Amino acid sequence: MHTQDPVDFIEVIHNAVPADVCAAIVARLRASDRLQPGAVGSGVFPELKRSKDLRISGLSDWADVENVLQQAVFNGLLSYLRRYPQALIAPLMLQIQDSNGQPKRLVAEDFPDMSPAALSDLARTCLRPGAINLQWYAAGEGGYPYWHCELYPKDVKAETLHRHLLWTLYLNDEFEEGETEFHFQQRKVTPRTGSLLIAPTAFTHTHRGNRPQGGDKVIATSWILFQSAQKLYGG
Predict the structure, then answer these.
(1) DSSP state of 130
(2) In whole angstroms, what is the distance from residue 77 CA to residue 70 CA?
(3) Are 187 and 207 in contact (CB under 8 A)?
(4) How far apart are CA 25 and CA 28, in angstroms?
(5) Beta strands 11-13 and 196-200: pairing type?
(6) CA atoms within 13 A on the CB side of 130
(7) DSSP SS3 for 3
(8) pLDDT class of 3 with cuts at 50, 70, 90
(9) By three-state DSSP, how is residue 234 classified?
(10) CA-CA distances (angstroms) from residue 177 to 2, 126, 191?
(11) Which fold is adopted by the domain 11-63+128-234?
(12) Helix, strand or coil, per DSSP, at residue 78
């Protein structure tokens, strides 16, 4: 089941991960001894974001969880690209070979009938997954109430400028409030266990994570990034 507004480029995919799998991830996170204070791009500033975080990418004992989450996100990405093919063709002006071996420029109208395998190959060629961070927000005090976006010039490798789409997967919903709120779209996304939120990373989708009330909030977050220029264009 999908819900989306055709003009806000925010998509919510319900039941992207089963509720029992989410509950198991939350339990493992609560038991972890590797939690760190939640950081923003410039460091740890609790007045901006207050959470306990665990970056699971690269941790061998969390590889099973990462695989489950990345597969759910990839499935969500394919749905997003069918809804908004311009997410690929507008920045990259993609060409493929037609049945006669001749170059063909892709247009949005090509996507509805594209086979799942072809769309998957196209997505993997152009995009790559980011590292996954699990975040635990305590009731009444945790949250990320500062209005922010995900795209900024952080490092010399421009990794943060390669972020194309953000995603959040809600791992529980035993609390009130705690929505992901988008400023310009005037939209609040209510957390539901197993639901996946996908949206653009730029200032147009400035957002914040409201404080949960009456219970803790646990999420998984990351980005979908463009492949490096060398991989996309060579040389």
Answers:
(1) P
(2) 10
(3) no
(4) 5
(5) antiparallel
(6) 23
(7) strand
(8) low
(9) coil
(10) 21, 36, 8
(11) Jelly Rolls (2.60.120)
(12) helix
pLDDT tens profile 19-65 = 999 999 999 999 999 999 999 988 999 999 999 999 999 999 999 99
8 A C-beta contact, residue 199 and residue 104? no
CA pair distance 16, 61, nearest whole angstrom: 22
pLDDT band at 210 (very low <50, low <70, confident <90, very high): very high
- Two structure tokens written together for 215: 């219970």
Map out the domains of the chain as residue ranges.
11-63+128-234
With cut-offs at 50, 70 and 90, classify the pLDDT of residue 172.
very high
What residue type is 147 in one-letter code?
W
Cα distance between residue 113 and residue 23, in whole Å: 37
User: Long-range contacts of range 112-120, CB-CB < 8 Å, 24 or more positions apart?
Assistant: 112/82, 114/82, 116/78, 119/78, 119/81, 119/82, 120/74, 120/78
Angstrom distance (rounded) from CA 198 to CA 29: 23
DSSP element (H, E) containing 127: strand 127-129
The pLDDT tens digits of the residues spanning 122-164 come to 999 999 999 999 999 999 999 999 999 999 998 888 899 999 9
